[in-house]
Design a protein that fits this description.
alpha+beta, 3-stranded antiparallel sheet, two-stranded antiparallel sheet, 3 helices, 38% helix, globular
Length: 122
Amino acid sequence: MGFSNLEPKNKGNTLTCSDTTMGADTMFYQENDFIGYSHIQHLVPKFTPFNKSIACAIISASRISTAKKYDYGNKFNRTKMNKTKILLPTKNGKIDFEFINKIISSIEIERISKVENYFIEN
């Protein structure tokens, strides 16, 4: 990660992933506008709502789905990204964005509490 005086060309609130890797381990949420490079795939959601919590769920599901399926000779490229199926929570046949937001928020609160308790105890 670095800093540039150039104007960002890619919009934030999206996902990125390298197409030269062995799976979704390089998939990240980009909150702010950014400058990518030639091997970064800019994954723009085609649905709403989309936010950091939903991105976290998609990234986790993608990492699980691609684990141990790719290697140096069989890279996770755009074609394979488009064919990857992931599992997300659903309700009435649609992605349950409300549940995703609640569960990610709950996990964040739990983790922050653990960190705070660690510092209080030490």
